[in-house]
Write a structure and sequence with these properties.
Strand content: 25-35%
Number of strands: 21
Number of helices: 14
Distance between the termini: 43 Å
Helix content: 25-40%
């Protein structure tokens, strides 16, 4: 039996659940399919201030306050500097977004999924989409339930929010690995990690080390997420069990090791993933759109993933509404959506490519505000990259300062640039191409 709906949303993460909730509120018949069962593990626990207004529009701010710990800013720790640098979102261009939250993604994702159902979407778990076909009138999808029962839907519009499964990008052959990012990650969760004090307790901390950088994300339940984002060659060099390798990696960042001196690894579980940065050449088309990680994923250095996912959902809802109700305006709406989802990764990538360069490190460790460049920098770090304002002139000035500083530090900066070019090279499959778990 073929079931019908206005919009079929594949994937019950932040992008899919947000889109389903918004569409259901507009009276659309929406089916939201999630292959797993909530709550399910997911990394990416740090949110951005730009997320807050989206949660407000969903009516979920109180839920985030309940489950999260407030994140007022970022701490940067460099082995080449004797001090730590602290940046606060309250100093950004828009002073009305001073904080975000650190959250357990399993909890957040379930809240968003249940919220979509409460708004009227038919939310189905344990349902894996195995095949989709697109045509001028919509999409047909085949799926299978966890117990093996087949399901079949016919929808007027298809939203691919399948995350790293990249359902449509895989089907179209439009997924491209981002060789310029070229990172791998190894991470786990700890009890009793030593945090910052007072208001700073919920801040994310970034620790640079020889092979990349670490994140340190405090969570409201007392646990702390710790992970290393490193060059692929480093993860490939592993010749011992993952947990031992993780401990050895932490030892390469003495300041982080000190904060974990009395900490214990929760469930003795360590995760690794590799070669994960990619983008699709195709963001949308007739009767379909790619949302969040189904379109692109970049290095998590500035915690942009959930924001990009939810922001793309808001944009995709406008696109689908236009295409279903005003088809003559669909081409312009598609162009606007493609521009929207490409904007964030583009702005963040400029910083990510330079994150390990000593010139950028120096600007983060000694932040100044001539021409309001610090405010512009913090605006990007807060995720507020879709605004139209004079902020962009100040951001351009920051980039000019960076290049001038690079010339001043030319020998060291060039060595770092050349090392990065060498380090991101792909030398065969990474251990943990998807997700490797060892307990």
């Amino acid at each position: 039996m073929t079931e019908s709906c206005d919009v079929l949303v594949v994937g019950g993460g932040p992008a899919g659940s947000t889109a389903a909730a918004l569409l259901a509120r507009r009276g659309r018949k929406v089916v939201l399919l999630e292959k797993g069962q909530h709550p399910r593990f997911h990394i990416g626990e740090s949110l951005l201030p730009a997320n807050v207004r989206l949660f407000d529009e969903l009516g979920l701010r109180s839920e985030l306050e309940r489950i999260g710990i407030r994140k007022w800013g970022i701490e940067f720790v460099s082995p080449q500097h004797a001090h730590s640098s602290f940046l606060e979102f309250a100093d950004a261009w828009d002073k009305s977004m001073p904080y975000a939250w650190q959250v357990r993604r399993s909890v957040l994702d379930e809240i968003l999924f249940r919220h979509a159902a409460s708004c009227g979407a038919q939310a189905i778990e344990g349902c894996r989409v195995t095949q989709v076909e697109l045509d001028a009138d919509g999409a047909s999808a085949q799926a299978v339930m966890k117990d093996g029962t087949p399901r079949h839907w016919r929808a007027r519009y298809l939203m691919d929010a399948s995350g790293r499964d990249t359902l449509l990008a895989g089907k179209f052959g439009t997924k491209r690995k981002n060789e310029a990012h070229g990172s791998a990650a190894i991470f786990g969760h700890f009890h009793n990690a030593r945090r910052l004090q007072g208001k700073l307790e919920g801040n994310i901390s970034i620790f640079w080390f020889e092979h990349g950088w670490f994140w340190f994300i405090p969570l409201a339940d007392g646990s702390t997420s710790v992970g290393a984002v490193c060059w692929p060659y480093y993860l490939k060099s592993r010749d011992k069990p993952l947990r031992e390798f993780f401990n050895d990696t932490i030892a390469l960042a003495p300041a982080l090791q000190e904060r974990l001196r009395d900490a214990t690894l929760i469930d003795d579980t360590v995760y690794a993933t590799g070669n994960y940065s990619y983008a699709s050449t195709h963001a949308c088309g007739q009767r379909h759109a790619l949302l969040g990680d189904a379109f692109a994923f970049i290095d998590p250095v500035f915690s942009s993933g959930v924001y990009f996912a939810m922001r793309s959902a808001f944009g995709a809802v406008e696109l689908a509404t236009t295409e279903l109700d005003q088809p003559a305006r669909a081409p312009a709406a598609r162009a606007a959506y493609a521009k929207l989802v490409q904007k964030g990764p583009k702005e963040f990538s400029w910083f990510i490519y330079r994150m390990t360069n000593p010139t950028m490190r120096g600007l983060f460790m000694y932040p100044k505000n001539p021409l309001r460049v610090k405010e512009a920098l913090l605006t990007v770090l807060a995720g507020d990259v879709h605004r139209e304002s004079s902020m962009w002139r100040s951001l351009f000035a920051f980039k000019v300062i960076y290049y001038l500083s690079w010339l001043r530090d030319a020998p060291a900066a060039f060595r770092a640039w050349r090392a990065r070019r060498r380090n991101v090279r792909q030398v065969g499959p990474t251990k943990g191409e998807n997700v490797l778990v060892e307990s």
